[in-house]
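User: New here, any thoughts?
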Amino acid sequence: MVKTNQNENHAQQINSRNLKLPLRLISYVGKPFYLAALGLIFFVYITGYFFKTIGKNIFSYITSILLTLILALPKLLIQKHKTYVRSKTLPRETGLLKKIKKTKLLLLRSFYNLTIFFVSITFKLILVLVNKSKKKITSWKVQSLEILSASNKYILTKIISNKAKYTTYLPHLKSQLLIPIKKIAGKVRAIKPSEFLVSKRKKLSIQINFYVLFLRKLYQKTHRFSKEKVTIKHIIKPKSSCLRLKIIGLVIVLMFTLSLSVSFAFWKYVLKDLPSVSDLATRSQPVSTKIYDRNGILLYTIYKDYNRTPIPLSEIPVQVRLSTLAIEDAEFYSHPGFSLRGIARALYKNWKKGQITGGSTITQQLVKNTLLTPEKTLTRKLKEIILAIKVEKTFTKDQIFQMYLNEVGYGSTAYGIQEGARLYFGKNVENLTLGEAALLAGIPKSPTQYSPFGAYPENAKIRQKEVLHLMEVNKYITQEQKIEAEKEDLAYAENKTDIKAPHFVMHVRDLLEKKYGAEVVAQGGLEVRTTLDYNIQRLAENAVSTEVEKLTKLNVTNGAAVVLNPQSGEIIAMVGSRNYFDQAKDGNVNVTTSLRQPGSSIKIINYAYALSNGYTPASILDDSPVTFVIPNQEPYTPKNYEGGYRGKLTLRSAFAESRNIPAVKVLNSYGVKNMIELGQKMGITTWNNPQNYGLSLTLGGGDVKLLDLAYVYATVANYGNFPEPVSILKITANGELLEEAGCSEKNIPFTDIANATGSALAINVNDNCKTREVLKPEVAYLITDILRDNPARAPSFGTNSQLVIPKHPEVAVKTGTSNNLRDNLTIGYTQKYVVAVWVGNNDNSPMSRIASGVTGASTIFNNIMSGLLANEESLAWNVPAGLVQLPICQYTGSLACQGCPVKMEWFLESNKPAYACNSEQIQKILTENKKPQILDHAWRSDE
C-alpha cells in the first residue's frame, strides 16, 4: 500500500498537458500519414509494373515486394481485439483513460505493424541490391505487436508493483499478455528491448516494445486507484471495431480504385503508344510546308529538301559544341534526360503565360523532333520525358549530342550543324570562328526570328551576344574571348534561297508560327493557299524595281508597295523592298510592316472625322499663316509644302490640294484624341497614347505602317466598312482542312450587286466577309469624291499628273511627303483595288526634293494601277442614300447667289446649307485683308 500511495502522490505532480501531447500527435498524425502511404504504395505498385523495362531488375523486385505487402495487409490490419478481462478489483475509468481509448488503437496497431514490415522489407531489398544472396529469399513472417488494452496495462502494472499479491495470476496472464514476461531472481518484469533478439533456433520474431513501455510508464504515473469495485467487460466494443474495420476497408477499396484509374489513364494516354527509341535510326522524314498563291503557284517550300549532312561529333569543334550547350542545355552531361531545374523554371513561366512550353533538355528536343508530334500538351510532355530517359539508357551522351547536332533545324532547308554552317557562312563546321559558332547556336530556337537572312536580322546579333554571355557564365570562354567574338565582323554567305514574293511569304510564315508554332510550320506538312496573286505581285515588283532605279539620282534607293482587295481585306501583292536579297540596302526588311512617317496621306482620317461631325466639302477653311501657342511647348507654326498660302478655300480644295495649314486648323477644332480613336478603328495599330502626339499628327507626325495605312484607305473604298486583314485563304494538313477564309472566292461581282440593289451598300452583302462599319457610307463617298476630283487638285498637281489613270476617272488618290523628305507616299483606290506605294531609304537618309505627283511614289502607283485596270471597264461609284447635290458659292460655301463662282457640291441631307449668299458678303470677302493669325488657346494634346 505504501507504493500505491506513492504512485498516487507522484501522479498529482504530473503535468497533464505534457502527457496529452504525445497521444494527440499519434492520434491525428498517424491516420492521414498511414492512408497517404497506403495510396502511394498502390500507385507505385501499378506504375512499377509498366516501368520495369526502364529500371530492369530493381523495379521487378520492388513490384514483388509491394505485391507481398498488399497480400499481407488484411492480416496486418484486420485483427479483432478479443481480450476480455474480469477482475474483482479494477480501477475506475478516469478522464485520462477515456482519452487513451479515443486514440484510435486500431490505427496505431496497424501503423506499428506496417513500420515493422517496412523494416524487414528494407533489409531484404538491401541484400538483393548488393547481391549478397542470389537465392530466393522467402517472406519474413513478422508477428504484429498489439497495443495492450487498458485492463491488460492495469494488471501488468500491478504485477510489477506488487509481485507477491498477483503471483497467482501469472499462468493466466501469460496467455493474455502479448509482451514477454520473465521471472528473474524472484521478480516479475517485462523483458528489456535489448533482450529481444532474432533467433532462428527459437523462431522468435522481431519485437519492439517501445509503445508498451511508454503506456505502462504513463499508466503508473497518472492513474489513481479507487477502492470502488468496477467490472469492465471489454475496452473496445465489437460494434465499434467492426465499424472501424469497414471504414478502413472502404478507404482501401477507394484508394485502390483511384490508383488503378490513375494508372490506367497514365498507361492509356502516355505509355500505350510510346514509340521505340530504335525509331531514331529508322524514323520517317518530316513533311515540308508549302505556301502557294491564290492560283496554286508555289511561292515557297519550308524545309523543302531536308538538307542534312551528318558528321561525327569528333569533327565538330569544341567551341561549336560548347556554344550549343550554353544556350540549349548547360546541364546536358549531368542530367538523366530531363532537368528538374529546367522543368521548375518552365512551370513557373507557364503558370504566368498559361502555356505548356519550355524546360526541354537536348535529349528531350531530340525526342520531340524525331519521335513525337510537335503538339503542346501535358501528355506529350510526359511522353517526351519518359522517352528521354529511355534514350539516355540506350545511347551515350556523346551519341545523343551527335544525333541532336545532325538533326536540329537552322532555317530554310538546312538541317544539322554542317548545313547550317554552309547556309549562313558558306563554310564547313570545322572552319567556324567563335563568333560564327555563337550566332549559329542561337538560331534553332526560332530560325524565323533569329536568322540573319530573315525579316529581323538585328535579332541574330542580339541572340549571338546572349550565347556568348552564357558561355562566359558557364566558364566555357574567358571575358576576353567573349569581347573579341562580339566585335568579330561576320561575313554571311549569299542567300540563294528559291523563293517568290519573299516579303509576303515571310509575313505569312510569321502568322502561321504565331498560330501553330514554328515546329508545326517546319514539319507539319501544311498546304497553305494564300491571298496573293503572283501575276499582280510581279507587276508590282517590276514597277518598284524599275522606278527606284530611275530615282537613284534623287538619292532614292528603296521602294515598297502593297495591293489590297478593299472588300475582303485580302493582300493581293506585297513588295517589302526593291530587292529582298540586297543585304547592303537591308533588302530583307519589309517596309510595308515597318514604321514610317505617312506625310499628308494621313489627312484622310482627319477629314473623315470632320465630315462626320458637321463639316461639309463646301466648308470654308483659311489657308493663311498661323501660330499655335501651347503652354510648356515651343510655338507651332505649320507650313504648306511649297511655302505659300491660298487664303480662303473650300474643304474640298484644301483636301484635294493637300494644304497643310487648313488641315491643322481643322484638327485643332476637335482635338487629336478624336483623330487617334478614329484612326485605330480604321486600321492604325501604332497610335496608342494621345499624350505622345500633337497637331502635327495630321501632317504625318505619328509613325504608321504602310500596310495599316492601306487598310485605312480600304475602309473608305469599302464605303466605311473596315475589312479584317486576310493573308491566308485555306490551310490543309494531310488532306484535313484546318482553316478557310469565309469571304474569299465567294464575292458577288461588284457590278451585279450595284445593279441588283441600286445602292453601293449592297457591295457588302456577303456576311462571311468580316467587316465593321466605322464611317457612314455617305461620309466615305464624300471623301472618295474629293480624292478623285482631278480639277480640285490641279492647282497643286496639274491636270495631267501621275495621279491620273487614263479612262478611269473613278480612281481616288492621295499623296504624302514627310517634312524631312525621308518618306514619299501615294495611295489610291477603286472599288476593287487599293494600291499603296512608298519610296525612300532604309537608313532614313533624306531624299532630294521630289515634286509630288510628278516623280517618286506616284509614278510607281500609276504603273501598278494602270496595269491592274488595263483590261477592265471603268466602274462608277454609286451614291449612297442620304446625300444631295446642290449648287454652292465657292467663296462662302452657302447656296449660290449672283456674283460668285458656282459649283455643284455633295452634302449630307442632315447638314446641307439652308441659306444663299448675298452680294455684300461677296464684296467683303473680295476686299478683306488677310493677316497672320495667332491662336492663344490652341488645342492641347493632353485634352
Observations:
- The mean pLDDT is 73.
- The chain is about 45% helix and 10% strand.
